[in-house]
């Protein structure tokens, strides 16, 4: 795996779970990442904590790490490299991908361990 450059993004994020069939919330995107994923079982929303929609379940206290892209679709092992390094350090994650790059969320309480683990694995992390 080549060395990745990872940026720790500002702000605290939350992950909200809404019931299946819920209307897609309209959230501002200019201040940070917003990801809305719909399945037959749920609607999940990742956003800055301050704009998180009211939901049946909300998990707060996440920090966002973004791989600098764009990344080609032909590249392999990017998420595996990040996830493996974090798993070895005992850090759980929530993973997402966009057209251009990959993103991971780690609990704020685990951020220092996550950054250290990624650096130890040879990645460049800007915190």
Automatic annotation (TrEMBL):
InterPro entries: A9CJY8-like_N (IPR049447), ACT-like_dom_sf (IPR045865), CASTOR_ACT_dom (IPR027795), CASTOR_mTORC1 (IPR051719), UCP008459 (IPR016540). The keyword Manganese does not apply. The chain crosses the membrane at residues 73-96. It holds the Pfam family ACT_7. This is ACT domain-containing protein. SUPFAM superfamilies: ACT-like (SSF55021). Residues 11-48 form the A9CJY8-like N-terminal domain. Signal peptide: none annotated. Residues 58-120 form the CASTOR ACT domain. Keywords: Membrane, Transmembrane, Transmembrane helix. The keyword Membrane applies.
